[in-house]
Design brief:
With 436 residues, the protein is an alpha/beta fold. It has two domains: 3-18 and 240-431, Alpha-beta prism (UDP-n-acetylglucosamine1-carboxyvinyl-transferase, Chain), CATH 3.65.10; 22-237, UDP-n-acetylglucosamine1-carboxyvinyl-transferase, Chain. It contains 14 helices and 25 strands. The strands form six sheets. Strands 18, 19, 20, 21 and 22 form a five-stranded mixed beta sheet that branches. Strands 23-24-1-25 form a four-stranded mixed beta sheet. It has a four-stranded mixed beta sheet with strand order 2-15-17-16, covered by helices on one side. Helix 8 (242-255) runs parallel beside helix 12 (385-397). It is globular and about 65 Å long. The N and C termini lie close together (7 Å). The structure holds uridine-diphosphate-N-acetylglucosamine. Uridine-diphosphate-N-acetylglucosamine (UD1) binds at residues 23, 26, 100-101, 127-134, 170, 172-175, 200, 318-320, 342-343.
Length: 436
Amino acid sequence: MDRLVITGGTALRGRIRVSGAKNAALPCIAAALLTEETVTLRNLPAVADIRTMLRVLEALGCGVERVADEAGFELSAAISAQAVGDGGLQAPYDLVKTMRASILVLGPLLARFGRASVSLPGGCAIGARPVNMHLEGLERMGAAILIDKGYVEASVPGGRLKAIDHTFDKVSVGATENLLMAATLAEGTTHLRNAAVEPEIGDLARLLQAMGAAIEGIDTGTLVVHGVERLHGCEHAVIADRIEAGTYLCAVAAAGGDVVLDRVRPDDVRALIDLLERTGCVLTERMGQDGPQLRIQRELGQKLRAKDVTTAPHPAFPTDLQAQVMAVLTQASGISVIKETIFENRFQHAMELERLGANLRIDGSTAIIAGPAPLTGCTVMATDLRASAALIIAGLVASGETTVDRIYHLDRGYAGIDRKLQGVGARIERVSGGSV
Ligand code: UD1
């Protein structure tokens, strides 16, 4: 199993190009099921979760042609769902269990074929993460759903889903995406209220529009979808990954240095920009040849100030950057308080950060961090994707050598994080084999 060995204490300098957004790409891939014509997606990050989602579509009968870019960070995929429906319309457990986002094929399959069988995703390291809101919404649209032998067995007795006026109990990115896709082919006009407004949903909605869907209220909490009879193929470039961009901003904030991020969307990381500015980092936005750029500067020796953070749905502070910002705040002077309001079990990185020397305490969904704490390298292991990123950031700060084990979590969501960090001067090596 691969691991990363990091020698800390080097400031980061140079440029990093942000890859396409994993969490935008996943629903966009599922949306290709809504048409028999070819959907070509560009800027897909070359990460394990994207490969898994493409395999889920292949298991359903799609033809997928992949083309990787030269650096190996991104790929394009031409997806043809023409032959889907000839087989069993089943998304199997062995693929779904490795990635919860596979549940996103349910809405498109029901909308186009009136039936689907999708394995329930099961547990997850960061919390229970049920899919009840996905299923309730689809049931209201006319689907008959039962759970049998671990599978969601769904069918639409009337053949075609019906529009609904639906208010989500709480904000859910995945449930919004699933119902939005289902509504594009439903009969009538659907209103989705209290919908999530994460940038990835705007990207999905724009892909659906390019496929011929009639959607109003994009990027607002109320999506209005006029169902159409059929959708068609198109080409779509996925937006840049705000969480990847945010992770590199946190790396520079913690380790010090001066880095320009290329192809970033500053508004998507506004809550993090605000926070890092308040800790004392200098952030500058400008327009580059390849789109907007974001520069972050923190000179070594410049102290960071402690700040409080509460995670909440967009545009508030994203839960997917909570672990990384905790690593930064271990280096800030004073007491910082982080409240996690989205996932109940998302502080597992805290214990590993403590092993590196962080001074913190967890009380339920609150973390209290006292800094700055001198960190010293040791072997750590991560339980989820973003926790792994936090440990890398801590390793960049720690004196001596830090080994991050179980980096398959990282490879699920970050395209070449080790190579991108090497490119800005970090001493980080991928070591194959051995260990746990
Ligand atoms: C997505 C992101 C994930 C991010 C999360 C929150 C993808 C592939 N993943 O996950 O990286 O951390 O948004 O921004 O885009 N919930 C229910 N019932 C449901 C669905 C959700 O109770 O049917 C709860 C969850 O347990 C959680 C909250 O709602 O407490 C928000 O989850 P949700 O927004 O649905 O997260 P995901 O779409 O799974």
